[in-house]
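User: I'm writing a short methods note and want a consistent example. For Ligand-binding protein SH3, I'll paste the sequence; you return only the structure tokens, no commentary, since I'll be parsing the reply automatically.
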Amino acid sequence: MFNSALWFSNFPPEWAVFFLSMIPITELRAAVPIGITVYDLPVWKTWVFAVMGNLAPTIVLLLVMPYVHDWVIKQKFLGGILQKKLQDAENKFSGNYAKYGAIALVVFVGIPLPLTGAWTGSLAAFIFRIPFKKAFPLIFLGICMSATLVTLITQFGKGAIGWFL
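Assistant:
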């Protein structure tokens, strides 16, 4: 049975939220509700640990992906395929998309939907060659936006359930 709240049950609640936020499947979309409802952490503390946990892999991904890319490009089979796909994505991105890239990255990371978030946003920043100094603050803003939305939804859900019971 899939119960991500139990993965880090032996950790202090703050660190459990931090580590849950690092996982690409859960990110902070699961960590915030778990921190607030399962671990009974204060909202502000849950928000801070979730944001910091979600930010940690972003730093690593943005710094390491260029090196992984260079290594994969040198591989005979994967190198050509990857190079073609990245070139296609970059060509599609140029033009009108380039104008709205910064806003799009923040919104893409900030809207808490499946397959969006810091992990995918970091990959998008790499694919579209957004430098670390520009990508990191944009992804950070998106993470803060997502954490705030998930926190508000969680609080509203708790209030609505309490009202009905």
